[in-house]
Amino acid sequence: MASIKDKLNQLSPDRKRVFNNELTRFFVQSKKYDKLARILNDYDFLCFKIEQKQSTTGLQSISAEYDQFLALQPNLSEESLSALTTIRDALSTTAYLFHQDPFLSLPKQALKPPMNYFGKKESSR
């Protein structure tokens, strides 16, 4: 099965824009909360969203998408809800940092995958 990153790379710029702007709304309207939660927890998807909205207001709008989804109180596991809340909080904090520090050129820099003590990427659990 192709990863989200592979699927996104195959889209035209116009389709990427539609995907970026409409995906969350589509899954909410169709009540596919589990699938949306998996996508919102996906690192590649989050990087895609950030690359599409490279600004402080872009990060705030992404954070707002998480807020809207969490406000629906979807029937998800406590672990999934906790992860989504953590991501939303990190996005909100990151937006503030980018507003304060113009030397941070891309929001994506603040969301690098976790590194272990030896500088290697940690495997996803």
Written description of the protein model:
- With 125 residues, the protein is mostly helical.
- The chain has a domain at 23-101.
- It contains six helices and no strands.
- Helix 5 (56-71) packs antiparallel against helix 6 (78-100).
- It is globular and about 35 Å long.
- The model is unreliable at 115-119 (pLDDT under 50).
For the record, give the distance between the C-alpha atoms at the N and C termini, rounded to a whole number.
Answer: 19 Å
Note the main sheet.
Answer: none
Shape: globular
Structural class, from secondary structure content? Answer: mainly alpha
Radius of gyration: 15 Å
Query: What is the overall pLDDT average?
Result: 75
Beta content = under 5%
Helix and strand sequence: HHHHHH
Q: How many distinct helices?
A: 6
- Helix % is 55-70%
Low-confidence stretches: 115-119
Number of strands: 0
Topology:
Blueprint: H1 4-9, H2 13-29, H3 33-40, H4 43-52, H5 56-71, H6 78-100
Précis, in short:
With about 120 residues, the chain is mainly α. The chain has six helices and no strands.
List its traits.
mainly alpha, single chain, 6 helices, 125 residues
